[in-house]
Amino acid sequence: MDENKKKIAAAISAVTRYIQQEEEIYTQPCPALAHTPSVKLRLWSLSGRQAQMQMRNLMQMKAFHGSKFM
Q1: What residue spans define the domains of the chain?
Q2: Gyration radius of the chain over CA positions
């Protein structure tokens, strides 16, 4: 009986230590994310891409559906 209690105590302490190690890993800040430059929102490039997509959409509508949508 005493041998069984020792095994249970060892297993519980091993699981507890494992959980503590996992928590330490996830609470440490990631150094790769700390040095990444922030992405700046460039409104002119965003506007240009949006205009290109809109023109492509209009050309597809005219090509596939004829001029009934124009």
Answers
A1: 2-32+39-69
A2: 30
